[in-house]
Every structure is written in C-alpha cells, then in structure tokens.
Amino acid sequence: MPLFKALGAVAIACALISGAATRAAESIPSHYKDLYFDAARAGRADLLGGMIKDGFPVDERDGHGYTALILAAYDGHLDTVQFLLARGADPCAVDQKGDNALMGVAFKGETLIAEALVSRCDVNTTNRSGQTAAMMAVLFGHQDIVRLLAAHGAKLGMRDALGNSAGSLAHQQGNVEMEALIAQLDPRDQTQAAAMGTSK
Questions:
Q1: C-alpha to C-alpha distance for 137 and 107, rounded to whole angstroms
Q2: Global pTM value
Q3: Closest alpha carbon to 127 in 85, 81, 158, 150
Q4: Are 142 and 175 in contact (CB under 8 A)?
Q5: Which tens digits make up the pLDDT trace of 151-164?
C-alpha cells in the first residue's frame, strides 16, 4: 500500500480500534500494525497518538523487531521520538539484530535524536555482533556522535565479535581525523588500534 494511502487509513484504523485497550496485542489485525509502523516512519505523531490513546501498544513490534520509536529515530523524526518517549516507549528496546534506537541514529548521524536518547540506556550496549553505538558512529564518520557518546561514558576500547574496536575500525578505513579524535578521547584504544595495524 502506498505510504500516503496507508497514512490516510490510519485515522480510520484509530476509529476501528477505539475501545480496544483490553484487546490482546496478538488480536490486532496485521494491517493496523502496518499502519502504525508507516506512521512512525513518516513521523506522524498525531496518528500514532490516536492509535495509542485507543489502546494500541506503544512498543508493538514489526516482523524485524522494530518498534515505532526505533523507526521514527532512524528516519530522523525528533518530534515523534520525543512524543513516543513521553508516552512510555522503551528507549532501550532492541530489534532482532540487537540494535536499539541509539545505535540506529549513530549509524545515520542523527545527532539531535542521539542527544535525546543517550542518557536513557547504557551507551555500551552491544548488538548480536558485539557492536556498540560508538562503533557504528565511527564506521560512518560521525564525529559529533562519537564525542557525545564518549561524554556519556562510551568505552571506545570495547571489541566486537571480530575483535574490532572503535579505533581499529577508524584505522582500517584510513579515517585519520577519526583516529585523531579517538586518540584524544581514549588514548589506550588508539594505541591498540595502531598495534593491530602494524601487525597486519
């Protein structure tokens, strides 16, 4: 269903599920769920609010394990992220790969949303591959997010399942500016990254 049609139908869905606060999440038709997630991707807090008010679970998940908060954050909708947080959305929820909303915005470079999320969960949380939000920010060159995460306790020397740290990832990419930033923020990690580079 095209997005504009789906969003137009959300208002209808809100009316149809009115009074469904006691309905089990499993009994909500799949197309209502699709409308909810489409609204999150589009940043339509007004439509999300109507569905939540009428009993739709704020942390309902789609087939990938994404919540509305994860989707709104990834697509850069700060106002919608704040709206969902105010209505009890779990900022630490993870998808099937173990990624949370903070990891998603570190990947995308959404600094303002990262600022809204960074103090709500452990910044050193790892996904199923052992990656942290800081590693994702490094991989895509988002220095401002690396600084933000480090200021909130990110351990840049942590290793993922392949043995990479933030510093070694920057080194492998030849990102000299990022290496210099990590050397400033965590000299121990930079020393380890350099050692790995010379041993190859």
A1: 5
A2: 0.83
A3: 158
A4: no
A5: 999 999 999 999 99
